[in-house]
Amino acid sequence: MSPLLRRALHPLVLLAFTLLSAFHTWPLLSKLKGHVAGGREDVLMNVWHLWWMRQAVWVDPQNPFFAPMLHWPLGAEMYWHTLALAKTVWGAVLVPWMPVEAAYNLVLFSCFVLTGYTAWLLMRYLLERAGFAPGLAAVAALAGACVFDFSRYHLSHATAHLNLTATEGIPLYLLFFLRWLDEGKRKWLVGLALAALYTLLCDYYYFLYIALFSFLWVVADRWRRGPLLSVGTLKDAGVRRAGMAALAAAVACLPGVMPLLLHLFPAPIGIQHGDSDYFTDLYAFFLPDTLSAWLEVMPQKVKAFSAEVVGKMSTNAEEAGTFLGWLTPLLAVFALWKGVPEGRRWTGLGLGYAVLSMGTVLSIGNSDLLSPVVPLAVLTLAVGWWPAWRGRAWHRDVTVLLALCTLVAFLSPLTSFGEPLWVQVPMPYVVFKHMVPLFSRGGMPVRFELITTLALGVLVAFAAAHLGRMASARGAGVGLAVALAVAVVPNVEYLGKPLAMPALPTLPPIFDEIRDAPMPAAVFTDHVVGQWEQTYHGKPVSFARLARLPVREAALVEQRIFRALERLHGVAGPVTPEEREQMRRFLKDNHYRWYVAHYHHPLRHRFVVEELGGELVHQDGYVTVYRFP
Questions:
Q1: How far apart are CA 441 and CA 269, in angstroms?
Q2: Which ranges does the record mark as transmembrane (predicted)?
Q3: Which of 108, 144, 299, 581 is most buried by its number of CB atoms within 10 A?
Q4: Distance between CA 103 and CA 101 in Å, rounded?
Q5: Structural domain range at position 392
């Protein structure tokens, strides 16, 4: 391949992923203004992030991790919040030229284009390193990149989480990491350090994922030459390079990590999820999720199963996107059969992350109470397959005995105390979350499946390359066409429903009054929509949607006035004259001029009017607004 053609590949690949991204996220590009992708609560929070970065970086330069106009008058700390600085900083550039929601939609769209491109760079390198011709490697890498870029995980999270949609840093880091281990050139060391920092500034989970991946990769590589716990490890060239990579990444990420450590104690409160909830089911890897276009043609039992998976995730459908496809995994098996350099390592890592995504206890068919047949069958297969045991005299006898026990348990259910016996199978994550820092404070195990899709993409890229090489016997063009055709499989299997693009609310004239009022003036509100409304009126608000709530702010929102106006918890019961005076004084001292409620409730209306002295000044199907004296 000529140098000119090799350079021309990059804009062509970017164009290809721009078109594919437009297809998979349609109608996003047709509704950039006045609409927002997904429309869920987290989306409005992310839109606010872009507006806030414009204020913090350009309009009134200040610490972007502290928002003084949220949780007024205390302010909101966002060190442990999903701010996704690497993505939201684009608000400082884009917001002056377009509405903030259009900027958000464009940044979200760019995540797909960039993820496809960086995944293609990684997989092209792996294929060329394996000896495939540059042209074939470039085409086959498209198939693997599509697996990762348009996975159900990626497309599902695009409906709610900008930070989790920003996956482009992961393959870029792995490209630099592997090239550093292979070649030892300084530019790859610098690249992996910067890519690690970029990944950290997109999402903290992803930074830990690549750190764990790197550690496991190096351990597996070391085992090829000797045990890890030995003196020889210190002399191992590969381990030494890995140590330099860890040091470079640590130095680069230190500015991002230090604020987290400084604000780690007292530990922020995980208000959205715990350490063990949000896990996937074994069947969910092979059955379409509720946002998949294929669910509509599935049997009713499959639809019911997928709906139940979402129900177990607090109705957050974006977390249920773990479907790996049907033909796509078969392509990976084909690649392993034909041969993949370090194929066992990629397979082991992919399966390992899939196992972690299943949480603390094995769930099959949305049940974690399983028949003993399941562990018996797994044990039988493990003993029968284990290579080191195949030549032993006892191997066949023990395998047959275990198979008979499994058959008996299947035909005649095992019992205990006269009742059918059900067992729970603990999974590695139950230990992992206590050994790896931070996961015990809110691990979200289901998200580990992202790395499974990356490993799957690598294997599919090799499948496309092998098929292309086989077909090239009929001509080089035929080989390239066959390799390119493989990309159709994941693009079809991972097809989702049209991306929801709800229109943003039309703000009534009362918001002009709020916007034009001179400072000091603040707004009490009850929902993240009120946080988004700040992008219009620019006044301090009482609400803040945070991934983790700092302890000092937890004390603020537990005051009765916050519980009553945000959550209805404080409207019932008598109010003493002292309480009434204290709440009214709080409103006056902190210049709260309005209360904007996004759902009307008679008890709260009476509380605002009678106890707080509020005057109803506007009410429609969108908001109820009161003015305080």
A1: 8
A2: 78-97, 104-126, 132-150, 162-181, 193-220, 241-262, 320-337, 346-363, 369-386, 398-415, 446-467, 473-492
A3: 144
A4: 5
A5: 371-423
| Distance between CA atoms of residues 484 and 20, nearest Å | 14
- Residue 210 falls inside a structural domain: yes
Question: Are 608 and 489 in a shared domain?
Answer: no
**474 and 567, same domain (yes or no):** no
pLDDT of 2 higher than 80: no
Question: Cα-atom radius of gyration of the chain, to the nearest Å?
Answer: 27
**Does a structural domain hold residue 109?**
yes
CA 161 to chain CA mean position, Å = 7
pLDDT in tens, 498-537: 999 999 999 999 999 999 999 999 999 999 999 999 999 9
596 beta partners: 525, 625
Residue 361 lies in a domain: no
Q: Are residues 167 and 82 in the same domain?
A: yes
CB atoms within 10 A of CB 485: 15
In 10 A of CB 491, how many CB atoms? 16
Q: Name the domain count of the chain.
A: 3
514 and 470 within one domain: no
Q: Mean pLDDT throughout 340-359? A: 97
- CB neighbour list of residue 212: distance below 8 Å, 6 or more residues apart: 436
Is residue 402 located within the same domain as residue 466?
no
In the predicted structure, residue 345 carries a pLDDT above the cut 80: yes
Query: What tokens appear for 272 in the block?
Result: 């959205």
Q: Are residues 382 and 475 in the same domain?
A: no
* pLDDT value, residue 528: 96
Q: Do 187 and 83 reside in the same domain of the chain?
A: yes
- State the angle between helix axes of 327-338 and 449-471 in degrees (0 to 180), rounded to the nearest 10: 60
Helices (H), 184-236: 186-202, 204-223, 232-235
Task: State the Cα–Cα distance between residues 211 and 203, nearest whole angstrom.
Answer: 13
Give long-range contacts, CB 8 A cutoff, 24+ apart: 413-417. Answer: 413/371, 414/371, 414/372
